[in-house]
Amino acid sequence: MTFDDGQNDRSLAAVAGLRTYDVSQRRTQRLRSRCHALLQAQARRNTPSAIVNGVSFRRIIGPALAGAWCLAYLVEIIRRAAAVYGQ
Amino acid sequence: MARLRAGDTDAFDEVYDAYRPRVFAFLLRMSRSRMVAEDLLDETWLRLVRRAASLRPDTRLGPWLFTVARNLYWSHRRDSLVEDAFAADLLSLWPSPAPWPSPFDLAAAGELERRVEVALSTLPPQHREVVLLIAREGLTPADAAVVCGISAEALRQRLSRARAALAQKLDETPAVAAFKRRYGT
């Protein structure tokens, strides 16, 4: 079966002329607010200071605090052992 | 694109206002359900926001949005078909519900427009999507091929078949006279 191209073009022209639909104003605003909140949260996470703070805490401050606590614990054990056995 | 990647809400608003009605109309005509189209529209925009920071600077948002919307529609359709297959036996036990007016019945005021909507809605979804993307949304065949995940040649063939099927369906309806009056013979 063959179809006339002109007829086909008119079919596409009819589709092109169909109306556009949209969601309700309330739903539009709700989704917009949700997207804004997500965008802003992501932007905060991706800022250099946040990255530096996150990286520095994970890689420097955290291990340093843990190391200091272990060192203090060890020193205290040695001090008490010395107090007991040193006399 | 750079502003959107940086989380600029004004840039988001520009894209949102420009594309929201177009993406929604596409989803509505694909799904033929306002409720489904609204849910898929929400998910499309949320995906854009979640992935905004990782998008390439040369990403073209129009084709990108239609690709996401289209993939969400097909994913939803696959899930619905599975559910329908399981529910078919159960549904046959219930009394038939009253016919629910489609969005097109309610919204399409003009007879010709209504007929075109009906003809379009009866096309197979693979045909409907290429007609909508090219004729209604104005995408280039190359962009439409990317959106549909097929080659340019496959899209050309699919569009040709879709146009023929649409013309045939319009010819079958009583509105053909009005259609020819409006668009010439």
Count of strand segments of chain A: 0
Main beta sheet of chain B: strand number and arrangement? none
Strand content of chain A: under 5%
Structural domain count of chain B: 2
On the 0 to 100 scale, the average pLDDT of chain B is 83
Beta-strand residue percentage of chain B: under 5%
Distance between the termini of chain B: 45 Å
Describe the protein's architecture and organization.
The complex is a heterodimer of chains A (87) and B (185). Chain A is mainly α. Chain A is built from 3 helices and no strands. Chain A has one domain. The longest helix of chain A has 38 residues. Chain A is rod-shaped. The termini of chain A are far apart. Chain B has 185 residues and is mostly helical. The N and C termini of chain B lie far apart (45 Å). At the A-B interface, helix 1 and helix 2 of A face helix 2, helix 3, helix 6, helix 7 and helix 9 of B.
What is the element layout, followed by pairings?
The complex is a heterodimer of chains A (about 90) and B (about 180).
Chain A: H1 5-16, H2 25-46, H3 48-85
Chain B: H1 2-5, H2 9-31, H3 34-51, H4 61-91, H5 103-107, H6 111-121, H7 125-136, H8 141-148, H9 152-172, H10 176-183
Helix pairs in contact in B: 2-3, 2-4, 3-4, 4-8, 7-8, 7-9, 8-9
